[in-house]
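Workshop exercise sheet. Pairs work together: one partner reads the sequence aloud, the other fills in the structure field after running the prediction. Swap roles for the next sheet.
Pair: D.N. / O.F.
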Amino acid sequence: QTTENKNDLILVELPQPQPGFGQVLIKVKATALNYRDLIVLRGQYQGQKSPVIPMSDGAGEVVAVGEDVTRVQVGDRVAGTFFQDWISGKITRSVMSSDLGGGIDGMLSEYVVLNQDGVVLVPEHLSYKEAATLPCAAVTAWHALVTKGNLQAGETVLVLGTGGVSGFATKFAKLKGATVISTSSSDRKLEQMRELGADLTINYKTTPDWEKRVYELTERIGVDHVVEVGGAGTLAKSLQAVCYGGQVHLIGVLTGFGGEISPLPIMLKSVTVNGIYVGSREIFETMNQAISQAQLKPVIDRIFPFAEAKAAYQYLQSGSHFGKVVIEI
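Structure field:
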């Protein structure tokens, strides 16, 4: 669990939890890190409890069920949903405090108890380690491009960076028949993005005016969708890169929380800006059907044992990864 001293993970022994009414006991097999987990570790995540068992992303086996559990049974392979209380429909204020590894205890534990409504069956072709990568980054990418974005074949998608959301967004965009433009400061990572399916790539370090390059690559039209994970530091450029009537899916805060943005391009270009905060269980289940049908597999960079959880966090912090960082339990 993270401590009130921030910046620290402490290994603790707790009694094995028991499932109550409507709850399931999960033997966790693997968890996966997101940038959010670094913010929680620093004590900067809005609404986080302290101390907290961290990590939203995990998959495992149902080993016991409480009374009146009908959605899953012992032996099922499941993942937890990021927001335990967001089943379907629009997000609500009450949902916000049910986030695993933030507002409530998360998945970095040998056993966890979750409500039956807060789990989904994982695609059969995925290992536990692969399934553990889905709850945050994959659901976010699917929610943005497919649920909200209604992505169509032939459209163009700009993905910023090469993190988990951008990787899944690339896979989903190619699944839907779209063209993908990818940006990174690393030529090595851009090559990996091309292997993942990206059609065009831009190194934003050697091409700092990358929004102009996007404009050129799209025959001076702009992209239909931007998967905007940078936040304040990149949003102004994303608004330049998007086409008239296009969509910017605002997902991340990798460049920080502050900044001022001119609303003018949003108005003049009739741009839709979608705030995307992961997604509901219904979105997760719909995405899993598509992943199963297409036999898609997440990209895993490195797997750390449970005893080396701190090293996994440090590795994610280094930014040298491509794909997901997984902790095997």
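Discussion prompt: The first strand starts at residue 23 and ends at 32. What would you look at next?
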